[in-house]
Design brief:
By secondary structure, the protein is α+β, with helices and mostly antiparallel strands. Helix content is 12%, strand content 27%. Strands 1-2-3 form a three-stranded antiparallel β-sheet. Strands 4-5 form a two-stranded antiparallel sheet.
Length: 75
């Protein structure tokens, strides 16, 4: 199965990622949905689960900055 690439990300007022949109989709997945889909291998995201905070998502590590969630468009 090919993982769907993330093409857009929405942030809250604090700059935290609250939703993402994958390639080929018109709607956004909220953060909780994105975490579940990433854990199932559907979305091309990494789930980070620090011991003292809630789970969050990141793009897979690479040398590109432009594909980081913070740098993606919001639509």
């Amino acid at each position: 199965m090919t993982k769907k690439r993330i093409i857009a990300a929405k942030k809250d007022k604090k700059g935290n990622i609250i939703a993402v949109k994958s390639e080929g989709n018109k709607r956004f997945y909220n953060k909780d949905q994105a975490i579940k889909l990433a854990e199932k291998g559907v979305l091309d995201l990494v789930v980070v689960n620090p011991s003292n905070k809630d789970k969050h998502i990141r793009t897979p590590p690479n040398k590109k900055v432009k594909d980081n969630l913070d740098n993606l468009p919001s639509s």
